[in-house]
Amino acid sequence: MNRLQNDAALHRGKQTGKNTMTKLDKTDLMILQALQNDAKTSMKTLADALHLSKTPVYERIRRLEKEGIIKRYVALVDPEKIGLPLVVFCNVSLAIHDEEHIRQFRETIGTIDEITECYTIGGIHDFFLKVVVKDLQAYDRFVLEKLTKIRGIAKMQSSFVLNEIKHTTALKPVENG
Amino acid sequence: MNRLQNDAALHRGKQTGKNTMTKLDKTDLMILQALQNDAKTSMKTLADALHLSKTPVYERIRRLEKEGIIKRYVALVDPEKIGLPLVVFCNVSLAIHDEEHIRQFRETIGTIDEITECYTIGGIHDFFLKVVVKDLQAYDRFVLEKLTKIRGIAKMQSSFVLNEIKHTTALKPVENG
DNA sequence: ATTGAAAAAAGTCGCGG
DNA sequence: CCGCGACTTTTTTCAAT
Predict the structure, then answer these.
(1) Which residues form the HTH asnC-type domain (chains A, B) (predicted)?
(2) Confidence at B7, pLDDT banded by 50, 70, 90
(3) Are A171 and A36 in contact (CB under 8 A)?
(4) Which residues touch strand C (CB under 7 A)?
């Protein structure tokens, strides 16, 4: 039953290194674009579109995965359809910002499902969170029961999303010119 | 060559409606969790983990897709590996906020690759953008050449991300109790 | 609704140009 | 690097329970 819990994304081995800046040619870019749009695009479809056979497409994809350019394949679910229509952006400042508090803050962040993104913005003790919840009441509970359980939080400022206009996971690689 | 450009994600038909609140049982939740973690998890793997055969798993996934709960399957690429390491959050206010300007703003947003997310936050003429670019110079060019090309922008405030601590696309559905 | 088998499609890989 | 072709795995369908 716990194979489902695995970290996955390593279904064909991965790279942890951040370098190995390999060139991406036009074909790679089109493959990336297609798979970012629809991960289930078959190799035959890609091959036909690129006027190639399956082998080069297969090997390019394999290479993109191996080099960690393609990090993983995921299913995207509709937040509204699963009862999570409210998005909140939230600034959090830590009062006590010794290494231990910061380390613990980061660790805890990773375990809280409602927090989908977390960044440091303006200094080592300033965090910026994207939070996805059911409604305002759920957000209130999230703050009280989860966020403030983390020791050392000084200030908090929440911005509630009224409407989502655009949301994509697709990135267009920079031209390597 | 242009099949790659298609909007896709409709590879098995989709729903546009926002309702049809169907109950998700434990099995559905585990399937969703697994596919959000790794879209390539095979049905046999899922079936084994759930102590079922492939068919019910297949039918459940099909249903989740049909109802739009699973919106699409995508490949996630590593921004750093494709030369886009800088994330900027940006508040934009419109000066002129008649319907026509707002409509055009929204339309233009959708065509700009650097903008991965856009929300309305604090009123109808207040937008919040997530922007992904190569470096500060590229951000400057983005603002000058793309953002301010949109007529009617009054104020702008940018926050630069120093470090990404968490970033997931996986959502945990609310308990249907 | 679930099973198990079987057909169809997709992915994988060695070999030759 | 690419194409061909054989082999493996996965997806999809379906008759029967």
Answers:
(1) 24-85
(2) very low
(3) yes
(4) A 12, 42-45, 54-55, 58, 61-62; B 52-56, 59
